[in-house]
Amino acid sequence: MLDRDQCLALDAEDPLREFRHEFVLPDGVIYLVGNSLGALPRRTAERVRRTVEDEWGRQLVGGWNHAGWYEQPLTTGDRIAPLIGAGPGQVVVGNTTSIAVYQAVAAALRLRPERRVIVSDVRNFPTDHYIVQGLAGLLGGYELRDLGEGNFEDAAVVLLSEVDYRTGARADVPAVTAAAHAAGALIVWDVCHSVGAMEVDVSAADFAVGCTYKYLNAGPGAPAFLYVNPRHHAAAGNVLSGWHGHAEPFAFEADYRPAEGVRRFAVSTPHVLSFAALEAALDVWERVPMAQVRAKSMALGELFVQLVGDRLELASPADPAARGSQISLRHPDGYPVMRALIDRGVHGDFRAPDVLRFGFAPLYIGYADVYDAATTLLEVLDKELWRDDKYATRLAVT
């Protein structure tokens, strides 16, 4: 097992070490919550300032034409596309993950009108499962089948996450996609917990959705993205037929006429200030070698597991290749344990009923950080620091 000096040596040799300076990290904080909200890129404040003062402030409404605001859903989509194995004109950015899930599943159902089964995973991130429940209830006549039944027969659409948000378990995207297609179903992948943490390839999928505020560091409330396979561009319909998905939005026609290609999945006016923060983050990601990110991610996670040992139950897969950039541990009093840990400068988060999550963002987390985080966690457990009464009351966001 590595000691701290060996961890510092690994940090000094890390090919990604220079990227740490690209982010604002408070002194005394080890931030292991990149799987929930990524750290702030240094260039974001200046990029947003420029959008506010130079574009909005000076160009006013002219910014839609001269600052590129109107085209941002597509131009920014083309910048995200390489991170998910997609090509130009296949990704549209805007709205939220929940809305993108709704759009993708609704479009898939329309493409398989003869089928009445939706396969999901009850362990999916709640918004995914809730959206499917709501959509099925609205349409009526659909069976919701849990992935645990292992049956894609007669399914119209399969909705799954590449990385499980609780445990970090990684799905075999190529194999599951092939199985769904072999059964005649369409598949939608949620890559929120994998994009920016590993090499992602959704090119064989029918649709994919993802957020940009986790590992991609675009900030709270940053816009989500939707991938639509080119084979569906002509036939797939956008159930949310907003004016920005119209073929000619400024013709102001009385009836909806869908735009060609992925543009038809745009809905409404893009959130320009949020796009500015996203673009600043993508300036970093366009220089990042994802294979190195994945290699370091697995190494950091494995180091953490080794250092914690058997003090807590490992909820994540033991095989580093079978998990995302996240380690989940179980403790019956997980919430106060996490609160005590955060008070001592190590930031993770908690997911009910008993999971402590630690996300490893390789661009700004090093080996010595992981060593110190594990050491602090063991101290909290050994000294039972979590038993302090102040940790018993749960905050609104855990």
TrEMBL record:
Pathway: Amino-acid degradation; L-kynurenine degradation; L-alanine and anthranilate from L-kynurenine: step 1/1; Cofactor biosynthesis; NAD(+) biosynthesis; quinolinate from L-kynurenine: step 2/3
The reaction(s) this protein catalyses: L-kynurenine + H2O = anthranilate + L-alanine + H(+); 3-hydroxy-L-kynurenine + H2O = 3-hydroxyanthranilate + L-alanine + H(+)
One Pfam family, short name: KYNU_C
Enzyme nomenclature, EC number: 3.7.1.3
Binding site for pyridoxal 5'-phosphate: 97-98, 125-128, 190, 193, 213, 243, 269
Cofactor(s) listed: pyridoxal 5'-phosphate
Keyword set, alphabetical order: Hydrolase, Pyridine nucleotide biosynthesis, Pyridoxal phosphate
Molecular function GO labels: kynureninase activity
Modified residues (N6-(pyridoxal phosphate)lysine): 214
Family: Belongs to the kynureninase family.
Function per UniProt: Catalyzes the cleavage of L-kynurenine (L-Kyn) and L-3-hydroxykynurenine (L-3OHKyn) into anthranilic acid (AA) and 3-hydroxyanthranilic acid (3-OHAA), respectively.
Quaternary structure and partners: Homodimer.
Name this protein carries in UniProt: Kynureninase
Protein's organism: Nonomuraea composti
Lineage: Bacteria, Bacillati, Actinomycetota, Actinomycetes, Streptosporangiales
